[in-house]
Automatic annotation (TrEMBL), chain A:
The complex is composed of two ATP-binding proteins (UgpC), two transmembrane proteins (UgpA and UgpE) and a solute-binding protein (UgpB). Keywords: Signal, Transport. This is sn-glycerol-3-phosphate-binding periplasmic protein UgpB. It comes from the Bacteria. It holds the Pfam family SBP_bac_8. It is found in: Periplasm. Gene3D superfamilies: Periplasmic binding protein-like II (3.40.190.10). Coiled coil: none annotated. InterPro entries: Bact_solute-bd_prot1 (IPR050490), SBP (IPR006059). Part of the ABC transporter complex UgpBAEC involved in sn-glycerol-3-phosphate (G3P) import. Binds G3P.
UniProtKB/TrEMBL annotation, chain B:
Keywords: Cell inner membrane, Cell membrane, Membrane, Transmembrane, Transmembrane helix, Transport. Pfam families: BPD_transp_1. The complex is composed of two ATP-binding proteins (UgpC), two transmembrane proteins (UgpA and UgpE) and a solute-binding protein (UgpB). This is sn-glycerol-3-phosphate transport system permease protein UgpA. It comes from the Bacteria. The keyword Cell inner membrane applies. The chain crosses the membrane at residues 9-30, 69-96, 108-128, 173-193, 205-227, 266-287. Its main location: membrane. Residues 71-283 form the ABC transmembrane type-1 domain. Part of the ABC transporter complex UgpBAEC involved in sn-glycerol-3-phosphate (G3P) import. Probably responsible for the translocation of the substrate across the membrane. NCBIfam families: PRK10561.1. It is a multi-pass membrane protein. It is found in: Cell inner membrane; Cell membrane.
């Protein structure tokens, strides 16, 4: 009896797997849970039902860092997925791993699926493209920092909610007025290094690192201790000292404070839009990221954060054909405009942006077009194309530590940024040595 | 007068030892050997190429002031965790030992926290002390104390020490209680008849007789503070603010899995192994001499 049922189960398993194997299976490891995970699953489902040749199997492997580590460990064991989601700070690590990746432009050329690299937004694509213009990975979710305004908090403190907040000088005055008006949290932020140093540098057209922010070589050195960055961080340190800026944590902990209505201003990714819209019990508004009036070339353009899809080497050409079909599917403007509208991430193609506009989405949801405008306002310069630095996840950790020293009043902005540059350079040299 | 059990022949003792030897070899000697080997190289993350650097990784680490600072942080953290969890457990065990009614319930409840994994314990404490929604920080705010472990280094250290010690108190409590109950009542009663008060009895009789238990717990707790507290640190502070709670084992993780610097990470594991080995040798050589079995 027991043997019979066991063999039956075995037979059915074999039968089942053999039918499933009629389609080529393509593994995709990603880092999304919750709502983003559902939207991703929806894209996969739509692709799988749209054709019979390939099945995409999406697996969640933890947060961004964990997903990258899972991919690396799997590669070392020879069990790598076809597609790996890697956050933007892991870009240099992936690029340096020449033998482990199969560049997207190559996959697309061999697979023959529809692909026009000119159709992608320059400011998004640039981050993942070689200096020769070859796209190495496909941008998946890209966002850029913007300023969220709690209009009720302004009114409560006796301020006009329509106050001009386009420059940090104006923000400074507003924060002082908010504080005097009784606000317990005039300003908070998410992702301090990304918003207040990386984007800050690009937005004011000053280098974050030498060698075109690392695009031109592994022998790059950090350079974010220049006068513009020091001025900005020192100002924030002064705000922190008397409660005009409330530091909540290294990641997006500040989001909870803002969504609860406690904070008046919040610098956060444009992808935070869905969360704020869902939870905020107050009147909110999105404004462009402020800039320092008087800095030459500001405002330039902001840079992206998010992830891209890397194709890993070591698979069959039939499978790569499936990968190219899927990446082509992801780039279609229907998929992209839906993704953009649902999440607040930028559309990666120009066509998707135009489609969203034509559908009237921006008129119904004012503020959602700001991220795109801010990124495409000017043609990117070598300082505003993006960042390509090794060990950058860990360098961000160092920056976080040093900024915390400023917020706590232990260090001046100049001392903290000098120290961060020095410590980060040590890691860059290690990375250079490991990848020479 | 040592008791010796002798086996006839070799086969049986070897068979009895083999499972333990195999487990140790597979799960300890092999990975430890790998770590020592890897610490001599700077590999790229994907294992495509690697360069032999000899002791270069160790030189790099010991020349790094932040790595040396992590030693101090680890020492402070381990001493605080060990003292706090042993002290609290001993106090509770002495109370439980004197209790006659309801001691079963009391003991059972005290053992509960041990079942909570360090990472979960970390999240629980983080919720209580969250600067915005935490219950404890809210009450502290009413009392006029502005709790902010996100920026205050001492508060962050206090919080990770409390969260790490909490679950450990249960474990230590069990051993202390068993130790206390193994002390013959007649000895204590004799001292009581001689007029020794509770504190004198504790100091001159109970504590010395408890010393084997205390010594064992000391070794086990230091090893715990060195390694198993990773989950607590990762969930509560991620090593911050600045580097106030970056202990050695957290740095192994940060350099290896955030920075993908496997050479440095392997070298740190080797250093950690040596440090814990040395500590244990010191403990057995010097402290054990004072222990009365």
């Amino acid at each position: 009896m027991k043997f019979k049922s066991l063999s039956l189960a075995l037979a059915s398993t074999i039968a089942f797997t053999s039918t499933a194997y009629a389609q080529t299976e393509i593994q995709w490891w990603h880092a999304f849970t919750g709502r983003l995970g559902d939207l991703l699953a929806e894209q996969v489902e739509q692709f799988n039902t749209s054709q019979d040749d390939y099945t995409i199997v999406a697996s969640h492997k933890g947060n961004y860092s964990e997903t990258l580590n899972a991919g690396i460990a799997a590669f070392r064991a020879g069990e790598q997925p076809h597609i790996l989601m890697v956050f933007e700070v892991g870009t240099a690590t992936m690029m340096a791993a020449g033998g482990a990746i199969k560049p997207v432009y190559e996959v697309m050329a061999e697979g023959g699926a529809a692909f026009d690299s000119d159709g992608y937004m320059g400011a998004v694509k640039g981050y993942y493209t070689t200096t020769e213009g070859d796209m190495l990975s496909l941008p998946y979710n890209s966002s850029t920092p913007v300023l969220y305004v709690n209009r009720n908090a302004f009114a409560d403190a006796g301020l006009d909610p329509d106050t001009d907040l386009s420059t940090w000088q104006n923000v400074d005055a507003a924060l002082t007025a908010l504080k005097e008006g009784g606000s317990t949290c005039p300003l908070t932020t998410a992702w301090q290094s990304w918003v207040h140093l990386e984007n800050m540098s690009a937005y004011h057209n000053v280098p974050f690192a030498t060698k075109d922010n690392g695009f031109a070589g592994l022998d790059t050195e950090l350079a974010f201790n220049g006068p513009v960055q020091v001025q900005h961080v020192q100002m924030m340190g002064d705000w922190a000292a008397d409660g005009r800026f409330i530091y909540a944590g290294r990641r997006n902990e500040g989001g909870a404070n803002f969504r609860a209505g406690e904070c008046a201003l919040f610098t956060e990714s444009s992808a935070g839009y869905a969360g704020v819209k869902a939870e905020a019990q107050f009147d909110f508004e999105i404004r462009p990221l402020p800039y320092w009036d008087g800095v030459d070339g500001a405002p330039q353009n902001t840079i992206i954060g998010g992830s891209s899809l890397w194709v890993l080497s070591g698979h069959e050409s039939e499978e790569y054909k499936g990968v190219s079909e899927f990446l082509s599917f992801l780039s279609t403007s229907d998929i992209q405009s839906k993704w953009h509208q649902n999440t607040g991430y930028l559309p990666i193609t120009i066509a998707a942006a135009e489609q969203t506009k034509a559908e009237g989405f921006y008129d119904e949801n004012p503020g959602t077009e700001i991220a795109g405008m801010q990124m495409t306002a000017n043609a990117p310069t070598p300082n505003s194309k993006g960042l390509r630095l090794g060990s950058f996840d860990q360098i961000r950790g160092i920056i976080d530590e040093e900024l915390e020293a400023v917020w706590a009043g232990d260090k001046t902005a100049q001392a903290a940024l000098d120290s961060a540059v020095e410590r980060g350079n040590v890691l860059l040299r290690r990375f250079e040595q490991a990848n020479q | 007068m040592e008791k010796r059990v002798t086996f006839k022949g070799w086969l049986l003792p070897i068979c009895l030892l083999l499972p333990q030897v195999i487990v140790t070899a597979v799960f300890f000697f092999y990975p430890a050997g790998q770590a020592v080997w890897q610490s001599l190289f700077i590999p790229d993350p994907f294992g495509l190429k690697s360069q032999f650097v000899g002791l270069g990784n160790f030189e790099f680490l010991l020349g790094d002031p932040y790595y040396r600072a992590a030693f101090t942080t680890t020492a402070v953290f381990s001493i605080l965790v060990t003292v706090a969890s042993l002290g609290m457990a001993l106090f509770l065990a002495v109370l439980a030992d004197r209790l006659i009614k309801g001691s079963g319930v009391y003991r059972t409840l005290l053992i509960w926290p041990y079942a909570v994994a360090p990472a979960v314990a970390g999240v629980l404490w983080l919720f209580m002390f969250n600067t915005r929604v935490g219950v404890v920080s809210w009450y502290l705010g009413i009392l006029g104390y502005d709790w902010n472990h996100v920026l205050n280094e001492a508060e962050a250290m206090g919080l990770v020490v409390a969260a790490s010690s909490w679950g450990r108190v249960s474990y230590n409590f069990l051993f202390f209680l068993a130790g206390l109950q193994a002390i013959p009542k007649s000895v204590i009663e004799a001292a009581a008849i001689d007029g020794a008060r509770f504190w004198t009895r504790f100091r001159t009789i109970v504590f010395p007789l408890l010393s084997p238990t205390t010594f064992f717990l000391l070794v086990v707790n230091i090893v715990y503070a060195f390694f198993e507290t990773f989950g607590v640190i990762h969930t509560i502070t991620s090593g911050g603010p600045q580097q106030a709670t970056t202990i050695l084992v957290y740095k192994v993780f940060a350099d290896g899995f955030v920075g993908q610097d496997l050479g440095s990470s392997a070298a740190q594991s080797v250093i950690l192994l040596v440090v814990v080995g040395l500590l244990t040798v010191i403990q057995f050589k010097f402290i054990e001499r004072r222990v009365h079995y």
